[in-house]
Specification:
Blueprint: H1 11-36, H2 41-59, H3 61-68, H4 74-89, H5 92-106, H6 111-119, H7 122-128, H8 131-141
Helix pairs in contact: 1-2, 2-3, 4-5
Family: Belongs to the GOT1 family.
Transmembrane segments: 21-39, 45-65, 77-94, 100-118
InterPro entries: Got1, Vesicle_transpt_Got1/SFT2
Length: 146
Protein backbone atom coordinates (compact mmCIF):
# COMPACT_ATOMS: atom_id res chain seq x y z
CA UNK A 1 0.00 0.00 0.00
CA UNK A 2 1.69 3.14 -1.22
CA UNK A 3 0.95 6.51 0.31
CA UNK A 4 1.37 9.73 -1.56
CA UNK A 5 2.51 13.04 -0.17
CA UNK A 6 -1.00 14.52 -0.19
CA UNK A 7 -2.52 11.97 2.19
CA UNK A 8 0.48 11.53 4.51
CA UNK A 9 0.74 14.30 7.15
CA UNK A 10 4.24 13.20 8.19
CA UNK A 11 5.70 13.26 4.67
CA UNK A 12 7.72 16.50 5.22
CA UNK A 13 9.34 14.98 8.31
CA UNK A 14 10.56 11.97 6.35
CA UNK A 15 11.81 14.01 3.41
CA UNK A 16 13.77 16.56 5.47
CA UNK A 17 16.80 14.31 6.17
CA UNK A 18 17.03 13.46 2.48
CA UNK A 19 16.97 17.12 1.54
CA UNK A 20 19.51 17.80 4.30
CA UNK A 21 21.92 15.20 2.97
CA UNK A 22 21.65 16.78 -0.46
CA UNK A 23 22.24 20.27 0.91
CA UNK A 24 25.17 19.08 3.03
CA UNK A 25 26.68 17.26 0.06
CA UNK A 26 26.38 20.31 -2.16
CA UNK A 27 27.82 22.44 0.64
CA UNK A 28 30.89 20.22 0.94
CA UNK A 29 31.23 20.22 -2.87
CA UNK A 30 31.07 24.02 -3.05
CA UNK A 31 33.55 24.36 -0.16
CA UNK A 32 35.99 21.98 -1.84
CA UNK A 33 35.50 23.60 -5.26
CA UNK A 34 35.92 27.07 -3.76
CA UNK A 35 39.23 26.05 -2.18
CA UNK A 36 40.41 24.47 -5.44
CA UNK A 37 39.68 27.72 -7.27
CA UNK A 38 42.07 29.66 -5.01
CA UNK A 39 39.59 30.46 -2.24
CA UNK A 40 36.80 31.90 -4.34
CA UNK A 41 34.74 33.76 -1.76
CA UNK A 42 31.40 33.34 -3.54
CA UNK A 43 31.71 29.54 -3.76
CA UNK A 44 32.92 29.33 -0.15
CA UNK A 45 30.01 31.46 1.05
CA UNK A 46 27.49 29.29 -0.83
CA UNK A 47 29.17 26.16 0.53
CA UNK A 48 29.02 27.44 4.11
CA UNK A 49 25.36 28.34 3.88
CA UNK A 50 24.44 25.01 2.27
CA UNK A 51 26.48 23.01 4.79
CA UNK A 52 24.92 24.65 7.86
CA UNK A 53 21.41 24.50 6.34
CA UNK A 54 21.89 20.84 5.42
CA UNK A 55 23.09 19.99 8.90
CA UNK A 56 20.00 21.55 10.42
CA UNK A 57 17.76 19.65 7.97
CA UNK A 58 19.46 16.34 8.82
CA UNK A 59 19.40 16.53 12.60
CA UNK A 60 16.73 19.20 13.10
CA UNK A 61 16.90 22.82 14.19
CA UNK A 62 16.64 22.18 17.91
CA UNK A 63 19.37 19.53 17.95
CA UNK A 64 21.57 21.75 15.75
CA UNK A 65 21.27 24.63 18.23
CA UNK A 66 21.89 22.28 21.15
CA UNK A 67 25.00 20.90 19.42
CA UNK A 68 26.53 24.26 18.55
CA UNK A 69 25.58 26.20 21.67
CA UNK A 70 26.76 23.92 24.46
CA UNK A 71 28.78 25.64 27.14
CA UNK A 72 31.88 23.47 26.67
CA UNK A 73 31.77 23.97 22.87
CA UNK A 74 31.52 27.77 22.99
CA UNK A 75 35.10 28.30 21.79
CA UNK A 76 34.71 25.81 18.93
CA UNK A 77 31.37 27.29 17.87
CA UNK A 78 32.84 30.77 17.99
CA UNK A 79 35.70 29.82 15.70
CA UNK A 80 33.49 27.86 13.28
CA UNK A 81 30.68 30.42 12.97
CA UNK A 82 33.20 33.28 13.12
CA UNK A 83 35.00 31.70 10.17
CA UNK A 84 31.72 31.47 8.28
CA UNK A 85 31.09 35.16 9.01
CA UNK A 86 34.62 36.14 7.95
CA UNK A 87 34.15 34.26 4.65
CA UNK A 88 30.82 36.01 4.10
CA UNK A 89 32.47 39.38 4.80
CA UNK A 90 35.06 38.69 2.11
CA UNK A 91 38.26 37.34 3.68
CA UNK A 92 38.15 33.73 2.51
CA UNK A 93 41.59 32.44 3.54
CA UNK A 94 41.37 33.69 7.13
CA UNK A 95 37.77 32.50 7.34
CA UNK A 96 38.57 28.98 6.12
CA UNK A 97 41.43 28.67 8.60
CA UNK A 98 39.08 29.71 11.43
CA UNK A 99 36.41 27.30 10.18
CA UNK A 100 38.79 24.35 9.99
CA UNK A 101 40.05 24.99 13.51
CA UNK A 102 36.50 25.31 14.81
CA UNK A 103 35.44 22.18 12.91
CA UNK A 104 38.20 20.12 14.51
CA UNK A 105 37.31 21.45 17.94
CA UNK A 106 33.60 20.75 17.41
CA UNK A 107 33.97 17.24 16.06
CA UNK A 108 37.05 16.00 17.93
CA UNK A 109 34.94 13.59 19.96
CA UNK A 110 33.73 12.01 16.72
CA UNK A 111 37.19 11.34 15.24
CA UNK A 112 37.85 8.10 17.22
CA UNK A 113 34.63 6.70 15.77
CA UNK A 114 35.76 7.63 12.26
CA UNK A 115 39.20 6.06 12.77
CA UNK A 116 37.57 2.89 14.10
CA UNK A 117 35.27 2.77 11.09
CA UNK A 118 38.11 3.34 8.62
CA UNK A 119 40.16 0.56 10.25
CA UNK A 120 37.41 -1.88 9.29
CA UNK A 121 37.51 -0.93 5.58
CA UNK A 122 39.75 -3.49 3.80
CA UNK A 123 42.31 -1.33 1.95
CA UNK A 124 42.26 1.72 4.22
CA UNK A 125 42.39 -0.45 7.36
CA UNK A 126 45.60 -2.09 6.22
CA UNK A 127 47.12 1.34 5.56
CA UNK A 128 46.12 2.55 9.04
CA UNK A 129 47.71 -0.57 10.56
CA UNK A 130 51.17 0.18 9.14
CA UNK A 131 53.66 0.68 12.00
CA UNK A 132 54.18 4.46 11.86
CA UNK A 133 50.63 5.37 10.84
CA UNK A 134 49.15 3.02 13.45
CA UNK A 135 50.97 4.80 16.26
CA UNK A 136 49.86 8.22 15.05
CA UNK A 137 46.23 7.19 14.50
CA UNK A 138 46.02 5.52 17.93
CA UNK A 139 47.59 8.56 19.58
CA UNK A 140 45.28 10.99 17.76
CA UNK A 141 42.10 9.00 18.21
CA UNK A 142 42.69 8.19 21.86
CA UNK A 143 41.58 4.61 21.46
CA UNK A 144 43.33 1.30 21.14
CA UNK A 145 41.49 -0.52 18.37
CA UNK A 146 43.13 -3.80 17.28
Amino acid sequence: MATDSLSDPFYPLRVSPEIGMGLTGFGVFFLFFGMMLFFDKALLAIGNILFVAGLSFVIGLERTFRFFFQRHKAKATGFFLGGVLVVLIGWPIIGVVLEIYGFFLLFRGFFPVVVGFIRRIPVLGSILNLPFISGVSVCRSGTLIP
